[in-house]
Amino acid sequence: MLRRIDGSVHVLLIRDPYENWGLPKGHVEPGETDRGAALREVQEETGLTALVPGPEIATIDWHFRIRGRRIHKFCSFFLMASPEGVAVPGCDEGITDCRWVVLEDAVKQISYDNARQVLVAAVELLDGDGDPPIPL
After folding, report:
1. What is the DSSP letter of 18?
2. How does pLDDT run across 6-36, given as a tens digit for each residue?
3. In Å, what is the CA distance from 131 to each residue of 8, 24, 120, 136?
4. What are phi and psi of 65, to 5 degrees?
5. 57-75: pLDDT as tens digits
6. How many CB atoms lie within 10 A of CB 134?
């Protein structure tokens, strides 16, 4: 989720229930596309509704355990812009805070290495030749 604020590109970081800073993400519901799930999850976790979707940035995967079961989760991330609206943490989604951070600073602040890699890929997309892939 990107927005141009005072001439600089900012990314919206969310703080999860573990007090870690990350990116909005979730799961694909039946009948939903990855892009549709990404848009829905951003809306649920941040309250933002004016969203401009762009290209897929990356798919990450990780392993975790729930009740002794090992889970392998995949998550696709898309470049998105939010030209307007106030971000509000989705408490029902376990989000405790959200804030706009200058993109380069967000790469340092984000808690998860795999999410940091997504931000680095976003920077590379935005730094490419020509116009950015979404309006900022």
Report:
1. T
2. 999 999 999 999 999 999 998 899 999 999 9
3. 15, 25, 18, 10
4. -120, 140
5. 999 988 888 899 999 988 9
6. 17
